[in-house]
């Protein structure tokens, strides 16, 4: 994992164009396997959510507790300063007064001071027939507008189906679906809630949601890195 080695100019351009960008090979195979292997037996989690009980879809996930596992903490800390300038520029284009500090520690202090103290990075597990309904990961007043999801399983080898899906809703238009192609170890950076889109009369907001299509066979693991904490 070498965060500085990614083409951040291209990541920025892709985020501006479509609301998402791929970080290819963010995680090595052994890192993927180590994180996925934590799902059942690790004490590293604060809660367990079965999606069907809440109408979220089918499948399940676990939120990590503090202190986060070293790799999760490292990713959260290292990715944030790369994304904060994009977040600030987006907010400026959308006429939003909230700005984001240079370091993740400073932003977390803002969250914690407002009562958002529960960590939000999570590990998701899907089996045959499982899926994740379209949603947004909003956990309180303070929301960082970008998040990251890393695929920990190999498509076609460990599972079939289970595509990562985004939809974009522009004013007075039908939703536009997007399927993000990911291999094991790849990550996608995407808009949590809204992003700016440049129209003929200037910038306006478009709304995004994300989810996972039905897994046809096998088992699929994914890790989510959300930068704001939950109330």
Fold and architecture overview:
This protein has 231 residues and is an alpha+beta fold. Helices cover 25% and strands 34% of the residues. The strands form three sheets. A seven-stranded antiparallel sheet has the order 1-11-7-15-5-4-2. Strand 9 and strand 10 form a beta hairpin. The model has no long low-confidence stretch (mean pLDDT 95).
**What is the CA-based Rg, rounded?**
17 Å
Binned, the helix content reads: 10-25%
- Beta strand %: 25-35%
Query: How many β-strand runs?
Result: 15
What structural class should be given to the helix and strand makeup?
A: alpha+beta
Q: Estimate the global geometry from the Cα principal axes.
A: globular
Number of helices: 5
Order of helices and strands: HEHHEEEHHEEEEEEEEEEE
Strand order of the largest sheet: 1-11-7-15-5-4-2
C-alpha end-to-end distance: 31 Å
Query: Can you give the mean pLDDT?
Result: 95
Characterize the biggest β-sheet.
7 strands, antiparallel
Low-confidence segments, ≥5 residues, pLDDT <50? none
Sum up the structure in keywords.
alpha+beta; seven-stranded antiparallel sheet; six-stranded antiparallel sheet; 15 strands
Outline of the structure:
By secondary structure, the protein is α+β, with helices and mostly antiparallel strands.
């Amino acid at each position: 994992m070498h965060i500085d080695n990614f083409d951040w100019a291209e990541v920025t351009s892709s985020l501006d164009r479509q609301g998402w960008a791929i970080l290819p090979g963010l995680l090595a195979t052994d890192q993927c396997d180590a994180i996925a292997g934590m799902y059942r037996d690790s004490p590293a989690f604060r809660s367990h959510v079965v999606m069907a009980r809440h109408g979220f879809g089918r499948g399940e996930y676990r939120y990590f507790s503090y202190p986060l596992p070293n790799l999760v903490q490292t990713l959260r800390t290292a990715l944030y300063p790369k994304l904060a300038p994009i977040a600030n520029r987006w907010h400026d284009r959308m006429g939003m007064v909230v700005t984001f500090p240079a370091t993740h520690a400073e932003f977390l202090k803002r969250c914690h001071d407002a009562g958002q103290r529960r960590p939000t990075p999570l590990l998701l597990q899907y089996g045959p027939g499982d899926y994740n309904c379209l949603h947004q990961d909003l956990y309180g007043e303070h929301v960082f507008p970008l998040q990251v999801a890393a695929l920990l399983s190999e498509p076609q080898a460990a599972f079939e189906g289970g595509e990562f899906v985004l939809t974009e809703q522009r004013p007075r238009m039908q939703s536009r679906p997007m399927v993000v192609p990911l291999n094991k170890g790849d990550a996608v950076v995407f808009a949590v809630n809204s992003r700016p889109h440049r129209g003929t009369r200037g910038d306006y907001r478009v709304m995004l949601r994300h989810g996972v299509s039905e897994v046809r066979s096998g088992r699929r693991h994914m890790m989510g890195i959300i930068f704001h904490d939950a109330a």
